[in-house]
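Annual report, structural modelling task.

Input specification for the magnesium ion complex:
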Amino acid sequence: MPTAVVDISDRPAILATGASPSLSIVVPIYNEEDSIPHLYRRLSAALERYGHAYEILAVDDGSRDQSFALLSELAASDPRLRVVRFRRNFGQTAAFAAGFDRARGDYIVTIDADLQNDPDDIPMLLARAGEGYDVVSGWRARRQDAFINRKLPSMIANRLISWVTGVHLHDYGCSLKVYRADVVKNINLYGELHRFIPAVASWQGVAVTEMAVRHEPRRYGTSKYGISRTVRVLLDLITVRFLLSYSTRPMQIFGLWGLVSILVGFAISLYLAFTKIIYNADIGSRPLLLLGVLLIILGVQFIGIGLMGELLMRTYYETQHKQIYVVREEINGV
Ligand code: UDP
Ligand code: MG
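The model returned the following structure:
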């Protein structure tokens, strides 16, 4: 099975050593009243069997059905079920973020509420994490969704994301994933970014792998997404790529292209000026003149954007006391 970043030879095998790490299961919930009783029963049973301390963080993303009522009823008799209720629908990424912020476990497991993934796969993913992986991503190898509007766009998107990010996974969209808590708490989520966590994490130098998991057709409720998600995911991909490559040095990307553009524009203008002065040629009607001028203006704008980016980047990091690096561990440190 192809994996993304795989040198874990120096990692402590946490789960394998007998230490008992605790788990936080984060479940985003948007109008899932049909599925919640089944979800709670099957998830609890699977975790009970697994035997580690756990909490289930159900994040109600502004459901308009009985989801919250059902959850609060269940939570009344089970302190391990924690429920967060959003004021309105903020989206799946926000729901994950709320869960990550509140999670107290050593490992965070994400799973959808619709039981398309099997909670009984969780121990298997955690065992793999215990070998030293920080992120274990589920891969719906036999995905049970419609082909044309779900599987095909997803296949293309996965190829594209793998290619652009350099982190090769078959299934970025699978919600069933296991993260070490400290890794995922370090990542800020916006837009549809939750699916890019493995890529972002891998850039931070953590070990990412994937594992085939079971997948079933949706039996309760209906899917919350249509084909339009593909476009939003693609736009986010551009953001992610840019943020990770250039967010601390915007001038180097914009400035470089700005300079190239100005130089080419300048060369063209010089050539036209030469023909005008030496041969007295008529250059006023030449498309090349337009191109030369355009390139110079574009170049100046690019450099301006680069400088703006530098200012914004400093504001971003310094006002939030963000670091431009990620520390793995420290000895005799602060
Ligand atoms: N979801 C959410 N907020 C939203 C849309 C979806 O919390 O705005 C939840 C939903 O309840 C489910 C998960 O995200 O638990 C995945 O949604 P869905 O199963 O509809 O997506 P699909 O599996 O069809 O891609
Ligand atoms: Mg689903």
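The longest strand covers residues 23-29.
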